[in-house]
Design goal:
By secondary structure, this protein is of the alpha+beta class. About 20% of the residues lie in helices and about 30% in strands. It is built from 1 helix and 6 strands. The chain has one helix spanning about 65-85, and strands at about 10, 20, 20-25, 35, 40-45, 60-65. A hairpin with an 8-residue loop joins β3 (about 20-25) and β4.
Length: about 90
């Protein structure tokens, strides 16, 4: 019988892009373990005390972000925080 290898996939929480997870085989194990690709990121931002639920203004929690969305998220956060500090340059 043929051996079937199934590679788990990961999906971006923002844009829906899909990629295969990275396989890591450790000594003594017959099957690999899978993890998020190294270029993928995540974003978790919590505001002050708030009863708002997931995705609301008080909290952002994106566990899996593709490289493009991760870069956009960090750039947007940097711009917003700089604006909050009222810096010109």
């Amino acid at each position: 019988m043929a051996e079937v290898k199934i590679t788990p996939k990961i999906q971006c929480d923002n844009c829906g892009a899909v990629a295969e997870k990275d396989a890591h085989t450790m000594m003594g194990r017959s099957s690999p373990e899978y993890s998020k690709p190294k270029l993928w990121g995540s974003c978790k931002i919590e505001g002050g005390l708030s009863i708002d639920s997931y995705g609301g203004k008080g909290r952002l929690d994106f566990t899996d972000l593709c490289p493009s969305c991760a870069n956009v998220a960090i750039d947007a956060a940097a711009v917003a925080l700089k604006s909050a500090r009222r810096e010109d340059a």
